[in-house]
Amino acid sequence: MTHYDDFRAFLDALDGAGRLVRISEPVDAEPDLAAAATAAARLGDREPALYFTSVNGFTDARVALNAHGSWANHAIALGMEPDTPVREQVAELTRRWDDFPVAPTHREGAPFLQNTLEGSDVDLFRVLPLFRVNEGDGGFFLDKAAVISRDPDHWDDTDRQNVGIYRLQVKGTDKLGLQPGTIHDVAQHLRHSEERGEDLPIAIAVGNDPAVTIAASTPMAYDQSEYEMAGALRGAPVPLAKGPLTGLDVPWGAEVLLEGAVLGRRREFEGPFGEFTGHYSGGRAMAVIRVDRISYRTDPVFEHLHLGRPWTEIDYLMGPSTCVPLFKQLREDFPEVVAVNAMYTHGLVAIVSVRPRQGGFARAVGLRAMTTRHGLGYCKIVIVVDEDVDPFDLPQVMWALSTKVNPDEDMVHLSNMSILPLDPSSSPVGISGKVVIDATAPVEPDRRGRHGHPVRDHPETQRWLRVLRARIKER
Amino acid sequence: MTCPRCGDSTCAVIASSPVPGVWDVGLCPVCHYTWRSSEPPRQSDPGAFAEEFRLTAEDVGAAVELPPVPPRRADRG
């Protein structure tokens, strides 16, 4: 299975597959970089990664946007064929998930040791070509970096070492704002360090192996290691290095490594930021990071995430890896669950296909989705469909909604459920109604409706599908 | 230097373009807004800043903590 030990190898693979557009003519940092990425996202699901090498005012900026931002790019990131359909990508991710944990390896000679800024020389602007993504953002953010921290109560427990992607607002040459959402593992680490009255050591790796980025975006349990998951997803151990200042385990191939501390018991105004919900978050008082050391490869590439009104890169990055844990957790209780599509706004809407065991079964599965770990903050609308409806094929889902649902009886509405605070329709913030829409045909002893005679595909259709696909490929 | 977002007049330049004279980056000490002088006026000009994103020092002071600072273990008795 193809895998990449650093971001540059991934960029080369994208380039080799014709999935990277190089833009060498001069552009303005604002609004050109983000506007170009927005335009790429509007090209449909074949959009390319963008690589800018001439940004006005900079002498040697290298900015990569949209690296994960299409199904083809997502497939390449995980060593699959670029034309792998999304449903098959999710199925393959589900298979690889079973290989967890794959222990990382420690490797010497990390390229980021080539250059160092310390003490008063620390200057984020000297190393990174920072820029604004959305017009109302409170500043320039790092939004695709792997943020690494440990539980200060269990410092030597690497299973509790967390790798996550959290937004970081640049607030000075050596200062960042950090958004630790209460459901995030880094918030646990910060709480423990603040209870102890200490700062929390932190490392921030910019520009990484694409499987590390996917694992860092995956909702995992507190004591599960993202590095061990990245190893499973890419089919090989992830190479790690020690952060020279913090001793934290960091991706060996990182382009830039920032190290420092989250300042204990301090909050400061942060935001707003155009979030993955397609809406700006409000401004809130958030944690503050002091950067004490910057290590970086010569000629570093700034890997940045573009997010705006969905769909954008973040939806491709988070979508499949959100489906898998939800599917796994549902299957533990209900083997009749066939597939889960939780790709819409990180699973605020989820579609689950099932083989109903008895009347009322589908709504029970929908309710269970809401009580999974991820479902506590998401799964606001869960649509349950029969096994013959592909949850990844929205016209099929719409057919099920159109013909299987009687709104008088097939909606299970719940009030005052928990939801992530960034959901703009939550009221009060963090609280929302939720609904299960049972779009399965009733089965015994539920005898409602007249669903006994759906039209079915001819049994020979599958053979013809293979024939037609082969013919199209020949052309 | 005046903050385009909250109007504070004590902003500082924290970065300048590696190619001299192309742009500077300003930072507001009150609302922590940063902007590049070469950005469109709706991000960089106090007179033309987008109304919907303007802030006051009171807004900044009233922001809720995320996450809240927990009690110290030593204080719990």
Automatic annotation (TrEMBL), chain A:
Residues 108-310 form the 3-octaprenyl-4-hydroxybenzoate carboxy-lyase-like Rift-related domain. Residues 11-92 form the 3-octaprenyl-4-hydroxybenzoate carboxy-lyase-like N-terminal domain. Residues 316-439 form the 3-octaprenyl-4-hydroxybenzoate carboxy-lyase-like C-terminal domain. It comes from the Bacteria. InterPro entries: PAD_UbiD-like, UbiD, UbiD-like_C, UbiD-like_N, UbiD_Rift_dom. This is Non-oxidative hydroxyarylic acid decarboxylases subunit C.
Automatic annotation (TrEMBL), chain B:
It comes from the Bacteria. It holds the Pfam family EcdD_BsdD_detox. This is Phenolic acid decarboxylase subunit BsdD. It comes from Streptomonospora halophila. The gene is bsdD.
